[in-house]
Design brief:
Blueprint lengths: L4 E2 L23 H18 L16 E9 L5 E7 L26 H20 L1 H45 L4 H66 L1 E3 L5 E3 H4 L16 H11 L3 E10 L13 E2 L6 H8 L22 E4 L3 E6 L15 H8 L7 E2 L8 E7 L2 H12 L4 E8 L7 E5 L2 E3 L7 E3 L8 E10 L2 E8 L6 H7 L23 E9 L6 E5 L7
Parallel strand pairs: 11-18
Antiparallel strand pairs: 1-3, 2-3, 2-6, 4-5, 6-7, 8-9, 9-11, 10-11, 12-17, 12-18, 13-16, 14-15, 16-17, 18-19
Length: 557
Amino acid sequence: MTYFTPFLADVSSLVIPEKFTYPFNYSPEPLAILAASELQNYIQSEIEDKHPFGMKGESSGIGKMFGVLVVRNSIGQLGYISAFSGKLGKKNDYDRFVPPVYDMLTSEGFYKPEEKRIHLLNLEVNGLENISEYIIWQAELVQAIKDSEREIATFKVKKKQSKEIRESKRILLNALIIEPDRVIALKELDRESAHLHYELKHLAAHWKNKIEELRTKIEHHEAKINALKKQRKEMSIALQHKLFENYTFLNAKGQTKSLHAIFPISQGDLPPSGAGECAAPKLLHYSYLNGFTPICLAEFWYGKSPSSEIRKHGYFYPACKTKCLPILTHMLIGLYVDPNPLEDNPTKLAQLDIVYDDDDIIVINKPNEFLSVPGRNIGDSIYTRIQAHYPELKELMVVHRLDMSTSGLILFAKNKVAHKHIQLQFLERTIHKKYVAVLDGIVESDRGLIDLPLAGDYENRPRQKVCYDAGREAQTRYEVIDRQENKTLIHFYPISGRTHQLRVHAAHHQGLNTPILGDDLYGKRADRLHLHAEELTLLHPSTLDEVTFKVEAGFEL
């Protein structure tokens, strides 16, 4: 089976990039865009009828991430190879798509026979856990414990009442009956007391023996179950480790590394589920294995979005961080790769735009692509600029933040009292914030409330996702201002302040289903992210007067 696909279109006028795509933050090269377009046409004509992508309204349909790698083959011909992430349906082998780095579904490999053995153990465990005798013993044990507690409690009440009657009889005996009849009567009462005490001990011993007998049966049975579970666990771990060793990845220098070496167990970094199954590692590995020269890469989503994440049909996306970053770091060795754009400071020459300044607060108009506070790779930020501008300032405290790509008003406190006062207003949600944005499409409704809980997408940081189980409450009011040329000018009024809240609420299919123009995480790149924090209203921490700051956006429809 051949996986190299020559371009159908004439590519002689397209520029071949000098550097390979930095896969975690990129704009697709024209060659990669063309390859993706041709692959999408192929998927539509040849694959859609075999796999439900949700494009035709199938309730069970869901999209898939695909990738294209533009390459030169061994005879210098320009073309591309294609891959999908994970499996397509339950298969790995599809015409035109490169195979996985290690195909664990092949009948000749070790994985399926070992998986079958583990499956048989599962059946044996399930059989023992559901055998009728075991279920009956468990039910009898529960009932025996209840019956023992009830009978013993009832007998103790009877014993206590009997004791009270005997005490009354003793008083009467001492007052009315003379010796030796009184001595005989008192001994009879003592014998009655001893007999009841013996009966209670006998009753308790009876139930104890019965309960212990049932527990012994259950423990012996569970010992068999636990032994099988231990064997199953050991087999699963051994199979997993064997799988990790067989997942070996080439780089451009011909060096190989297994998943075990890339995610060292000694450091506690077990490979995440599905590591090595994404499109980018598949494509690079196949390219190296067959003597191709990688030129540029692009990955795109095809089909219906998952319920929690934001994936738009036909949009390009970077490689995931959790699974692919460690693997691709190895695989890119030997390639001349574009630099990471996040390590460059695009606003290093920007001036600090001070909107308001007094003894308590300072308000800045933050440019887009400028950090609010120092980041991992870039130290320059609004915070450090203020510190440099006011070297005598002893206290500068962060009250809230704006995304790096978002422009607009950001507020800092100059002392602890002001910080506490403003922070309380944020917590009580009494601060009024207005953002202006241009959305990449038409929003039909004029106004409304978006209520979608958000959580971090830990496999694709810094992306966020909608999560009703573990997400934090997030609400946004919106008002459409204008619509022109398939664009929407909108005002956002965030009630909560979650990371990427406005970007997710705009792009998610349960929100406005229309990404913000220029959103490279949830939509498409443009000259900038068209999101601006335009207005901020709060109570001044010293005067307690309501103050409003406003700076208009540098963009419009």
